[in-house]
């Protein structure tokens, strides 16, 4: 028996070890179904496979459809209603970044410890960990009075717009629970996420007097839109780039003597002559932050910089909200301590919080203000979002055991 594990917990571990082949089969089956965010039929097919596996764990499943205008498949929800322990909300997603028109990458074992395939790590591997953990607990009769909701969204990689529609049911159900556990990929076996940065967008528009380039810098002609845009962007860098957890990236800049920008396609066209002072520039970018306070403070500083216009220019900046931050909280840290005790009881070592700056935003961020959260409980591997993405099969069993023991202790407190 591992140090600190009860007889019941040892049985959970043994079940998972004995059913590793079934876990790998479920992983292979779902990886071989293309479920790019825009592949509605594929996302639903993956959802059906996972629904069957969750039903085998004693869960009642339902499909939450999206309106046709959203152009997304919908979400899989599985529930068990009871009155024992903490009310848990388990998060995964069915979609991947790989659409049907991209080169295929079927599930393939590269060796005894590594497999590749589209979404094998992000995040079908994480979904399988959550499901197999629940199957193990159900087989031991440990879910009879548990209150658990499993929510696998169908559009995490490219969320349907508006968010007020595509995440409405997700947020409402989460608010009925105490704790959210996210099964996004693990960053090492003993590092999990107690915080994740949020993301938002910004658009900078600059206009200026135009005329012959011979007059640039003069009182009458001014500096032109390109110089003003350059001033603003460089000032952003000088003033804000050293702030911890804050990043802002200009992803597109377009300007010239004649230009147009298509915001729906994130592309534009420009014509520019070197002897004409540019009358217009558009820049679009993102802004990532750890807290709402940090986001709002950064926006105010950016507005102030934008307002200090060079002669002959005007500039304005607009901000758009994206995914909120999963802010660090005491409740999140308390969850980490429960997990840390588990991994030490397993004889595996300490578990710590990872660097929030190393992760992007995720579905769990939409609900972090309502419940205690822990993320990064999913599969380990490399190359997520890229061809050749891999999963470490040797670590899959340990991560499933860890998840099962965490769910068990939280529902039996």
Give me the count of strands. Answer: 18
Helix/strand/pairing category: alpha+beta
Query: CATH H level of the largest domain: which superfamily?
Result: Zn peptidases
CATH fold call of the largest domain: Aminopeptidase
Approximate shape: elongated
CATH architecture type of the largest domain: 3-Layer(aba) Sandwich
Mean pLDDT level? 95
Overall description:
The protein is α+β, with helices and mostly antiparallel strands. The chain folds into two domains: 7-196 and 326-411, Zn peptidases (Aminopeptidase), CATH 3.40.630; 199-323, Alpha-Beta Plaits (2-Layer Sandwich), CATH 3.30.70.360. 32% of the residues lie in helices and 25% in strands. The protein is built from ten helices and 18 strands. Strands 1-2-6-3-7-16 form a six-stranded mixed sheet, sandwiched between helices. The relative contact order is 0.19.
Give short descriptive properties of this protein.
elongated, Alpha-Beta Plaits, Aminopeptidase, 413 residues, 25% strand, alpha+beta
């Amino acid at each position: 028996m591992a140090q600190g594990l009860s007889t019941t917990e040892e049985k959970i571990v043994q079940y998972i070890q004995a059913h590793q082949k079934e876990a790998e089969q479920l992983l292979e089956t779902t990886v071989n179904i293309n479920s790019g965010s825009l592949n509605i039929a594929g996302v639903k097919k993956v959802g059906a496979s996972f629904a069957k596996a969750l039903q085998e764990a004693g869960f009642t499943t339902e499909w939450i459809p999206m309106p046709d205008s959203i152009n997304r498949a919908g979400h899989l929800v599985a529930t068990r209603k009871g009155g024992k322990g903490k009310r848990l909300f388990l998060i995964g997603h069915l979609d991947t970044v790989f659409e049907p028109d991209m080169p295929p990458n079927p599930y393939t074992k590269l060796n005894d410890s590594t497999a590749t395939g589209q979404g094998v790590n992000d995040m079908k591997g994480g979904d399988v960990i959550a499901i197999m953990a629940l199957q193990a607990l159900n087989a031991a009769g440990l879910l009879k009075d548990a209150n658990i909701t499993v929510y696998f969204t169908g559009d995490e990689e490219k969320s349907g717009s508006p968010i007020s529609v595509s995440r409405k049911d997700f947020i409402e159900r989460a608010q009925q629970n105490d704790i959210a556990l996210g099964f996004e990929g693990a960053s090492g076996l003993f590092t999990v996420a107690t915080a994740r940065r949020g993301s938002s967008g910004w658009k900078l528009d600059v206009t200026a007097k135009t005329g012959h380039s011979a007059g640039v810098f003069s009182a009458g002609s001014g500096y032109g839109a390109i110089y003003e845009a350059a001033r603003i962007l460089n000032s952003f860098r000088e003033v804000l780039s050293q702030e911890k957890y804050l990043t802002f990236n200009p992803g597109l800049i377009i300007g010239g003597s004649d230009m147009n920008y298509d915001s729906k396609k994130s592309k534009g066209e420009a014509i520019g002559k070197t002897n004409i002072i540019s009358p217009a520039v558009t820049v679009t970018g993102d802004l990532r932050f750890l807290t709402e306070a940090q986001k709002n403070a950064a926006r105010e500083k950016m507005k102030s910089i934008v307002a200090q216009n060079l002669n002959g220019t005007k500039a304005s900046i607009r901000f758009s909200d994206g995914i909120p931050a999963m802010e660090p909280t005491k409740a999140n840290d308390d969850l980490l301590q429960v997990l840390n005790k588990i991994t030490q009881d397993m004889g595996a070592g300490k578990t710590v919080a990872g660097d929030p700056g190393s992760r992007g935003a995720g579905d769990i961020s939409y609900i972090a203000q309502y419940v205690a959260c822990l993320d990064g409980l999913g599969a380990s591997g490399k190359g997520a979002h890229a061809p050749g993405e891999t999963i470490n099969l040797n670590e899959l069993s340990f991560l499933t055991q860890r998840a099962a023991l965490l769910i068990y202790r939280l529902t039996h407190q």
